[in-house]
Amino acid sequence: MKYYISNKAVVQRICKSFHLLPRALELSTCLPTSSFRGRSRTQRKVVVLRDPDMRMWPVLYHERSGFKVLTSGWEAFSKANNIQPGDGCIFGVESYSESIYGVSIVRK
């Protein structure tokens, strides 16, 4: 699901799978990035999430066909921001070149 806010592409994922993957967040769609295009094997990349308090969190992003997930670093980010099952996370691209994504949290 893609939205366009302030001319920045964003993706939204409601954290329904939070109980199933407490240390990771499976995304319903890919984070907008150009670094994986044209590659078919599994890709991993450190991305930076900026929370509503403007803190920066390095998180490992995995992408392959049919599988997109935030792993290492996600647990600390979600605990610090009190993200609960059913809350929504909106990821907005702040910098493609530095892989920085602003995260807005919509409480259930």
TrEMBL record:
GO molecular function: DNA binding
Keywords in alphabetical order: DNA-binding, Nucleus, Transcription, Transcription regulation
A single cellular component GO annotation: nucleus
Subcellular location: Nucleus
Limits of the TF-B3 domain: 31-108
SUPFAM superfamilies noted in UniProt: DNA-binding pseudobarrel domain (SSF101936)
Protein name per Swiss-Prot or TrEMBL: TF-B3 domain-containing protein
Signal peptide: none
Any single Pfam family the record assigns to this protein: B3
